[in-house]
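An instance follows:
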Amino acid sequence: MLTTPPAEGRARSAEAVNADIRALLERTRRRLSDAERAEYEGLVQEYAAASRREMTTAA
């Protein structure tokens, strides 16, 4: 199950977003519908941003 979006100004960790991506793909186990594909693409963008943020923080 996907978690609720973060409150304004609070970003989720890459780990949390990755868990949502995995849950979406496991839940569907088939070709994604247009709505699911849009959700997936949004999660991938959120994951990329979280990963960049965490790499910057670690450096």
About this structure: DSSP finds two helices and no strands in the chain.
